[in-house]
Design a protein that fits this description.
With 303 residues, the chain is of the alpha/beta class. The chain contains 11 helices and 10 strands. The N terminus and C terminus are likely disordered.
């Protein structure tokens, strides 16, 4: 993978073939993001105006993701996972701190960063009147791919996630939410980005499709040296795919280690000399946060 400098890149952007090799894939330093929330009174006529408060969605997060790593982020609903992904992908601007992708500051070199990344989320956007193939063709043009080669590759990827050629040529608005999610995943895989941000990518997929996506993620890393950041509610998925996992709770990173390391730490903190091999990632999460992964007690916060 080489760091090709686009013609319209800023003059002070890092250049040269070694740029991607020299820097970590992703570097966050003391990143924070808050949102203003309104609390409406009940009954509505109790006060003239709703109360406002600031909610800290991401709170002084620092982490570094190595090139070629599959890095997991686990957190309950409202822990700040999706906000963190949006910050990494330039969709949100941090209130404080610094984020860089392969050495490129996401605010100073936003265009260059966008050319290196792709994002899949549960709220993926499409041109709903167009077919899946037309949406993928549009994406291939944006990323400068050869149109004919991209079309062949697109059909291959769609077939592997369970979308037939006939279905691929129908408007997206006729597809179920699960099918649309598969197209979003196919679109990301088609562009083979240097950094792939997966925010709950397998939500709504059947077990077979979920497994196919997991295999694709591993293939992307092996073939294209793609770095992956994955948020998921599937503990087995995180355990199977991730080289390291950060546990996020109320906007803060409270633990960061390999799955085996997290299990060993949890086993050491449990009574009765529990063996690490008997500890699951669900045990790890409960031990660290004191609540299940699907806990919705902090829904005032951003996911």
């Amino acid at each position: 993978m080489t760091a090709v400098q686009p013609a319209d890149a800023p003059a002070d952007a890092p250049t040269g073939a070694g740029v991607l090799d020299a820097a970590p894939a992703l570097d966050l330093q003391d990143v924070s993001k808050s949102f203003e929330r309104q609390r409406f009174p009940w009954p509505p006529w109790a006060v003239a105006r709703p109360a406002r408060r600031r909610v800290m969605a991401v709170d002084a997060v620092s982490l570094r993701v190595r090139r070629g790593e599959i890095f997991g982020v686990l957190g309950a609903n409202g822990s700040g996972k999706s906000t963190l992904i949006r910050l990494m992908s330039t969709l949100l601007i941090p209130d404080s701190g610094r984020i860089s992708v392969f050495g490129l500051d996401v605010q100073q070199h936003e265009l260059r960063v966008k050319q290196l990344i792709n994002r899949v989320s549960v709220d993926a956007a499409f041109f709903k009147k167009l077919s899946a193939m037309e949406n993928l063709a549009f994406a291939s043009r944006l990323y400068g791919l050869d149109v004919r080669a991209a079309r062949v590759r697109a059909f291959e990827i769609l077939d592997r996630v369970g979308i037939s050629r006939k279905a691929a040529l129908k408007p997206m608005e006729t597809m179920s939410r699960g099918m649309q999610q598969k197209v979003a995943i196919a679109r990301a895989f088609l562009t083979a980005p240097a950094l792939l941000l997966l925010d709950e990518p397998t939500t709504g997929l059947d077990p077979r499709s979920k497994r196919d996506v997991q295999v694709f993620v591993q293939e992307l890393r092996a073939v294209h040296d793609t770095t992956v950041v994955l948020t998921t509610h599937d503990m087995d998925e995180a355990d199977r795919l991730c080289d390291r996992i950060a546990v996020l709770d109320r906007g803060r990173v409270i633990a960061l280690d390999t799955p085996a390391g997290l299990k060993a730490q949890t086993a050491a903190g449990l009574p009765g000399g529990t063996a690490p091999t008997a500890v699951t990632m669900e045990d790890v999460f409960l031990h660290l946060t004191g609540r299940p992964l699907d806990d919705a007690s902090s829904t005032d916060d951003e996911d």
